[in-house]
Structures are given as C-alpha cells and as structure tokens.
Amino acid sequence: MNDIKKSRRIVVKIGTTSLLDKNHPDKAMIKYLADDISALRKTGKEIVLVTSGAIGFGKEKLGVTGTALDVGMQQATAAVGQNLLMHEYEKSFSRHNQIIAQILLTHQNFSNKAYSDNLNTTVEKLLKLGVVPIINENDPVSVEELESKGFFSDNDSLAALCAINFKADLLIILTDVAGIFDSNPKANQKAILINDTKTLNEFKGFGEAKSGLGRGGIASKAEAAKKALRQGISAVICKAEKDALKNIFNGRINGSYFKPEKQ
C-alpha cells in the first residue's frame, strides 16, 4: 500500500450509477466525494476528478423517463444536466473553500497533439494553483462518444487517458460494486475478488448488463485499469461510498487494488 500513500497526483473517476439513487441525483454522494478530495488536497495531493452523471441529472430535470434515448435527447439532457451537476459540486467543494474548474472533452483533445498539449498545459496550471479540475465528456456536442464510436465511449476509458496524459501516480475508479470479481457478485455470493494483475489481464467481463444509466460496465473498468497499469500507474476499483477515498489512503480498500508490473 506504500505506493498509494506516496501517490502525489491522482485521477478519481465516479460513474453515473454512483451519482444517482433510484434515478434521482445523489447529492450526499457528491458531498462525500468533495469531503474526501478536499481532505486529500490539504495533504498536498493533486486530484483530477472525472465525473459522469450529466445525462442522469438532466433527465430528472426534464422529466425524461426510460433508458433508450436517441442521440439528440442524450445531448439535450446532458446540456441541461451538466450545469446541475457542476452546481452540486460547487456547493459541496465551497464548504471547504476548495476551488474547482470544469473541463469538457472530446476525442480530439487526445488524438490531436496540439489539442492534447493545450489540455495538459491547462491542467498543469490548474493543479499548480491548487484547483481541482472536474472533467467530463462533452456530450452535448460529442456525437461520436454518445454513439460509442469515438476515441473513448465511456468515462472509464476517459479516466485512464487522463491518468496517462497527466502523468498520474494512481487511478481510482469509484463504482457501485466493491471491485472486480471473477464472476458477477450480484448473482454469485461466492464470487472471488480479483487483486492480482495476471488475473486482471485475463478478465474479459462476465456478460453483465449495463445499467442503462451509464455507458460503462465492469469490463470497461478492467480495461481502464489495464491501460493505466501498462503505463506504470497503480489502479483501484472500489465501491463509491462515504469515506471511500479516505479509507483507500488509510489502507482499507473496499475493492480491488492493482500494482503495475515492471515497466
């Protein structure tokens, strides 16, 4: 666990299912996350937060039901929800006098070198200023990502790309299950938690259905961890809950922890 405690720059990703409670915005979860990140910032850690949730927040505001939304409706709900999501983050972080910044990205921010360099410059400056960048896909305009045809089609992949591009020491993915298991823990109470890189590399998912709220699944989280590990970045995939980040840095991880092998 020493590499976790020594980690200076951390990318934290939280998914849609963790930010919604029965399809309603879970404001308590945002508060827990802001509490933990602000506490880590006071110890000298640099934190980049990758967040989902805009479409879910927008659906509630607009009274939209169902999960099979066409691209236009996804863009509209994301445009409405992004403002609501950031408003909740602003309220929760301001309790700690922690300044935040919003960055919305598309695949071009990584596939185009000039865009990538500009992004890295911005993030580096924000971190030096003690600001927490909050990153999300630019769903209102990024049709490729909504159709799962783009450079990244879920925020797990986006978080891994951010960890690599921003030279993070640790990637933390907060989700609605306590890590990666060898079988679906929601269907098999005897499912075994995976914590070693060899087993992770062989993991292909277990055909679980996605929630309909988010575009990722446990397989996409495993792939994100693999990408980070290949670049020498440690990875944690654990349950989103109160004190989740605090517990990780105190050696109590409610999930899977992977250390990179020799680079």
So, CATH architecture? 3-Layer(aba) Sandwich
Structural class: alpha/beta
Low-confidence stretches: 209-214
Q: How many strand units?
A: 9
H/I helix tally? 12
Q: Kindly report how far apart the N and C termini lie.
A: 19 Å
Strand content: 15-25%
CATH superfamily: Acetylglutamate kinase-like
Rg over alpha carbons:
17 Å
Q: List the strand order in the largest sheet.
A: 5-6-4-1-7-8-9
> What does the overall shape look like?
globular
| Helical content (DSSP H or I, runs of 4+) | 40-55%
What's the CATH C level?
A: Alpha Beta
Order of helices and strands: HEHEEHEHHEHHEHHEHHEHE
Largest sheet: 7 strands, mixed
- Whole-number tally of structural domains: 1
**Average pLDDT, all residues:** 86
CATH-assigned fold name: Carbamate kinase
